[in-house]
Design goal:
about 140 residues; alpha+beta; single chain; five-stranded antiparallel beta sheet; three-stranded antiparallel beta sheet; about 35% strand
């Protein structure tokens, strides 16, 4: 039989900052940003850093990771609501891209974006406006 260790009482704030459990919670919550993505067989917890972009396919969305891809039974608007606060940008009515993986923007009518894998994604005129606004924030 396993008996849990008693919880130590923290009497002041200085003790709580140096407490190993508190330090563990801070370090894991900051470094391990994952989101739940539901699929037919359950829920996958995906690291935000591994998501390159999302591509709309009607009411489904293909999520492209560094090494593979999978389909989600959510439309791109729902995925945008989930990911936009995590540095994802809607660049086209069919594409939502992780800004951390953008390597190059090529000018044009809307233009296109090259990501870290070498894939090129089209940018719509409206997407170009949003992207340029974000670019101003970064610079």
């Amino acid at each position: 039989m396993i008996v849990p260790n008693p919880i130590t009482k923290i009497t002041n704030l200085g003790d709580s900052i140096n407490h190993p459990l508190v330090h563990y919670k801070f370090s894991t919550s900051i470094t391990a940003k994952r989101i739940p993505i539901p699929n037919r067989s359950g829920v996958d917890f995906v690291s935000l850093d591994t998501i390159l972009y999302c591509h709309s396919d009607g009411n489904l969305t293909w999520v492209f990771l560094e090494k593979n891809k999978f389909v989600v039974s959510r439309n791109l608007k729902q995925m945008e609501a989930l990911l936009s606060r995590h540095n994802f940008i809607r660049i086209h009515h069919q594409y939502l891209v992780n800004a951390n993986h953008i390597v190059r923007y090529e000018r044009g009518d809307g233009g296109c974006i090259r990501i870290s894998t070498g894939d090129e994604l089209p940018v719509s005129r409206d997407g170009k406006k949003k992207f340029m606004e974000k670019l101003k924030d970064w610079v």
